[in-house]
Amino acid sequence: MEEGLRPVCTFLIPVVRDSDRRPHLPLVWRLLQDALLRTFDALTGPEPVLYYRNPEAVPGAWRPEEGKEPIEDLSRKYTVAVPAHRVDELRALLRRAGNSFDQRVMYLEVGGYAEFLEVRPEDGFLEV
Amino acid sequence: MKKRVFQTITGRALDLERLDAKEREFLAAVQAKYEKNPAWSAFASWWPKELQRSGLSAESVAYRICQDLEARLGIAQGKVAAPDYRDYLADLIDERHGSRYRFCKATGMDPGHLSRILAGRSELSLQTLQRILEQLDAALVIEPEKALTERFSRESAVRALAAAAR
Fold it and tell me: Which of B8, B93, B118 to mutate to test the interface with A (most CBs of A within 10 A)?
């Protein structure tokens, strides 16, 4: 991509934790906003969306137990435009967010292309 | 005379004495919006744009106030959990040390362990909590739930906002 282009990146944050389906603490929402601001100078707010998360559509990321129904989640949708050469930083930030928000996979769209980011413990966490 | 402050859900006092005219005007607009009890995400989407439109930055105390107001709405609307000890701890670390890294360096605490605790992936033992509280010059207080609920209610924020916008 050309220098100076800023692909529009959209990502979703489910409003409940994967493990216990409980809502997140105020702390993690604040840390996400602070991290976006600190990293990209992006002061952004979310939009609510209903994201139909079909586990089978996540290639190799995580598999639910056999016979489990797909999960419907209310998610917050964030849109940020970041320089093309910094999209990897956004991916890294989202992986950290994935650990802080207790998610196994994070959904990201970059310039209209969907990605499913697998979240690993070694990716770290959003920091105070 | 009592100093005017905005008290966050974790009890942190944000100084309202030094608000400039731009901040006061912005907080008056926030107050008008907030009194209508907007949906959590609608408010979350609105205030950052409004903050920027007002020419204010995230350095302004108004940024922290809005984050706090957003959290209260989320709690009231069942979309956000009520704050637990992790919220208090993170706020104290931020206030006293500025970052998790600096706090861990000063206390010798393992940063990875602290991160796992703050993310709800691990729990603190009472002994570790006591050690951390000593470092932060803080104390553990057991309060009736009603008092806490009142502290992070939307209504108490509306009252504090009214004082801020004056």
Answer: B118
CA distance B67 to B58: 10
Distance CA B43, CA B73 (A): 8
Domain B85-142 class, CATH top level: mainly alpha
Supply the pTM of this predicted model.
Answer: 0.87
Neighboring chain B residues of A125 at a CB cutoff of 8 Å: 115-116, 118-119
How is chain B split into domains, by residue range?
5-81+147-165, 85-142
Residues 6+ apart with CB under 8 A from B113: B122
pLDDT digit string, tens, across residues B41-85:
889 989 999 999 999 999 999 999 999 999 999 999 999 999 999
Q: Which of A16, A25, A31, A77 to mutate to test the interface with B (most CBs of B within 10 A)?
A: A25
Helix count and strand count (H, E) for chain B: 9, 2
CATH of segment(s) A8-123: 3.30.70
- ipTM for the assembly: 0.90
pLDDT < 70 stretches in chain A: 1-3, 47-72
pLDDT of residue B145: 82
